[in-house]
Amino acid sequence: FYLSAHDAALIKGKKVGIVDDVVSTGASLEGLEKLVEKAGGIVTKKAFVLAEDKAADRKDVDYLASIPIFL
């Protein structure tokens, strides 16, 4: 992930919400959280449209619906 110096300055000291379409393993979410924290922001909300499989069991994210993984 990349964040410009301009954008990092806008985030510094601010509350930040991460909103995305799908959470699955949480790897992208973890990367975004680290990026926000490195820029000096505070992640206060994590929201998704869909949560796949075990991501639906997470207590730290909000989502509209869960979807199963078909093997």
Secondary-structure blueprint of this entry?
Layout lengths: L4 H7 L3 E9 L3 H12 L3 E11 L9 E6 L4
Parallel strand pairs: 1-2, 2-3
Structure, described:
By secondary structure, the chain is of the alpha/beta class. The protein has helices at 5-11, 27-38, and strands at residues 15-23, 42-52, 62-67. The longest helix has 12 residues, at 27-38. The mean pLDDT is 94.
Silhouette: elongated
First-residue to last-residue Cα separation: 30 Å
List SSEs in N-to-C order: HEHEE
Mean pLDDT: 94
| Sheet/helix structural class | alpha/beta
Beta-strand level of the residues, as a percent range?
A: 35-45%
Round the Cα radius of gyration to an integer and report it. Answer: 13 Å
Oligomer: single chain
What low-confidence regions span 5 or more consecutive residues with pLDDT below 50? none
Helix content: 25-40%
Q: The biggest beta sheet, please?
A: 3 strands, parallel
Looking across the biggest beta sheet, what order are the strands in? 1-2-3
| Number of strand elements | 3
Number of helices: 2
Notable traits:
71 residues, elongated, 3 strands, alpha/beta
Summarize the structure.
The chain is of the alpha/beta class.
